[in-house]
Amino acid sequence: LSAEAKTVACTKCNKGMYGDVVGQTECKQCRINYFSYLAGQQSCTHCSPGKYTVKEGEASCQECGAGKYGNGDDSNGGDGCLECPSGWYRTDVNGVDLTKCLQCEKGENSEAGSKSCQSCSIGQYGDNPGDCSECPAGQYQSEKKQIVCLSCKNGELPNEKKTACEKPIQKNKVKQQTHSFSMRARRLRWASSNTF
Fold this sequence. Notes:
The strands form 9 sheets. A two-stranded antiparallel ribbon has the order 1-2. Strands 3-4 form a two-stranded antiparallel ribbon. The chain has a two-stranded antiparallel sheet with strand order 5-6. By secondary structure, the protein is an alpha+beta fold. A hairpin with an 8-residue loop joins β11 (108-109) and β12 (118-119). Helices cover 12% and strands 22% of the residues. It is rod-shaped.
């Protein structure tokens, strides 16, 4: 009797999978943050910093979203993406470096994880990049995105929110106005009680 030799056809492992042992019968999935974009690969490639995969068996990596950057450390099983700190940002425009955030300019700030910066508000100034502070006592700022606060002139003082100057209220004038009002009120009460 003759034994018939069986011929087994090998197939390439699909994208997102690999075969690292000759003659293996099953392909393995690329682990998280690794990928294979071609079929028939013997290993998977690690995603570059700023990119990651969501699950095993991926054929490509996706970019860290706006407001985040990739430091390449995915050793804790995460995506390796970190939020930009406050005063820094990263847009989602193509071609932007995925491994770093950009610092806001003077007169601007941002919250952690931002994709853009905002101007310092009125009543604030930003003399350090990415940082806005309230105007110091005795000063004001009536415009956004400024790097200094201003001093009032002609005897005026900043308002409570430090957004403009105003003339100070004189205490004697307030007392006089209060006195005049109370005298009028007494006359009206007297007149109304003495009407027939």
